[in-house]
Amino acid sequence: MKAIITTKYGSPEVLELKDIEKPVPNKNEVLIHIRAASVTTADTMMRKGRPWVGRLFIGLTKPKHPISGTGFSGVIETIGQDVKQFRIGNEVFGESIFGAGTNAEYVCVKEDGVLVLKPEHIAHEEAAAICDGPLTSWNFLKGMAKVKRGQSVLIHGASGSLGTAAVQLAKHLGANVTGVCSTKNMEMVKSLGAATVIDYGKIDFTKTGQTYDIVFDTVGKSSFLKCKKALNKNGIYLSPVLSLSLLFQMLRTAMLGNKKAMFSATGTKPISVLRLLLKELNELLESGQLKTVIDRCYALEEISEAHRYVDTGHKRGNVVISMQY
Questions:
Q1: Which structural domains are found in the chain, ordered by start?
Q2: Strands of 212-217's sheet, edge to edge?
Q3: pLDDT tens for residues 268-311?
């Protein structure tokens, strides 16, 4: 099969298209013929081996698992002898975490892994991106902040993968949503459910005097200290981007003060928790309450170009690899 192999950390040029042996599923696994795979900011960070602390999990001097990619959507081609929940021909989507990569034609995933049946009306390209922005945002908003109806939620970076999902999910939870993005993305963010949209190029939301119950900084461009004055009493600052400053503020606010700083590495949560979160998102996909925003699709052999585009930091929604080109 064709797969993207990474034998060292570095620029997008380290990603190489190679022919390797097709995997064979174990008795508790399914073999999935991949139709689409996500290309995320996390993928580009793993390609670079940054932050350095991440190498403790993915490999000190080179990637422990050479095939890149985590999110996928495809069709089950073979099942192991002990598999009960899935059948050959099932269309599924999910995530392969700290294991076999998904920038390839095939991947083996455990039956009880982060894997669910794909809704029929959702394209593989749309489903492949669910385990990046939507899964992370759902964990932050529902699991950590426990957003309630009537609360005010500001989404910083509202036009990215996490942001486009967060706007929709916060509205679904009953929040009054404010999105922060660039001028060109304001209409899109408003169409996703934001009641108010702020152009970060013209207005600093931390200086308007407006306060919020939750500030979700999806891109890690701000800080708890800067956003603190934009938080209501008992307000929460959320960020998926860990820094020493955020770590210190998390430890400090856990003991002092009524405003909290929070971080979570969603992908390191127990598989059972991620699977439950994914099932909940799948119900929202089925009902049409959640939609995936796709910026660009690339062919597998264009993976380096896809990474270069994600590295610009200007993607709208999601970038995916389509095996159906």
A1: 2-130+292-322 (3.90.180.10), 133-266 (3.40.50.720)
A2: 196-199, 176-181, 152-156, 212-217, 231-239, 260-263
A3: 899 999 999 999 999 999 999 999 999 999 999 999 999 999 99
